[in-house]
Protein: DNA-binding MarR family transcriptional regulator
Amino acid sequence: MENVRELFQVMTKRFGLLNKNCCSVGGIEISLVQSHILYEIDRLKEPSMQQVADALAMDITTFSRQIQTLVKMNLVKKTPYPKDRRIYILSLTTEGKYVAARIDTEMNQYLNEVFSHMSEFEKETVLRSIKLLNDCMAKSSVCCKPLF
Amino acid sequence: MENVRELFQVMTKRFGLLNKNCCSVGGIEISLVQSHILYEIDRLKEPSMQQVADALAMDITTFSRQIQTLVKMNLVKKTPYPKDRRIYILSLTTEGKYVAARIDTEMNQYLNEVFSHMSEFEKETVLRSIKLLNDCMAKSSVCCKPLF
DNA sequence: AATTTTATTTGCAAAATACAAATATAAATT
DNA sequence: AATTTATATTTGTATTTTGCAAATAAAATT
Structure:
């Protein structure tokens, strides 16, 4: 049997690299962490600070400062939540949505290119495999449970 | 069709988290970056500084300083290369090997646990899928070519 | 021999990180 | 209702990480 971890390590390294490369779009340049923050804000609907920080497994104080930067860059908006005034709801500004969408397009473009080297059947199998993997990881009790 | 990037993002986030969690073993505590460095030194046989930095897509100056730290921690050894005195060969010390092995064990343990939620057939399919994916990513010309 | 290239390190300033403490508000307890 | 406890977020501060530019040193090329 091949080394399982090695397979994962190579895959995630490549995907991580792709993520890093996709951080500069249309003249705007953001860090990898910031790109992940935009992604999560977009994915979760009207999340609070704490929710996004949790989803990214990020220290809340570091996260708070990153959000301050993103607000200054006019990519993220912080809205007080009337029902609980401790909480701020995060959302993407128009510009933030644009950046997130551009990154998403570029990522999917690359992934399509990768899948173009496979048959349709292989592609379906790979995607189903990843989905299965994600489900099983979610079930696992060894680590990282609280998240997701 | 589901969102392909989303699938990858979730998977790599989980795996990244696992990597982070596996950074403290047997009383020794290292950073995620340092864990990756140990892993690559172990994987490549007698690599130079530049080779490992390239494999990790890391800035060589940052890498140089990380190596200094790891040498001080007695996890990595730097050996001058006689045939080209500009070059240093990196290797793991006994302690470094121990840490890397412990991390590897822990990672594989978790992965086994994840796969225990699948049938043997599913497991084989998933592993073959990842291998195929890695091959196709290597073939791809869109990004990240120089590496690997 | 002189120039160019490659490998690595250091100077330096900016950015990221995380612990502890502060603040503000909500929820629970007395 | 007043007090305590818990939760969400920010700030103080010190450490670590990062990466560009420049320095150094040794090989390769001209």
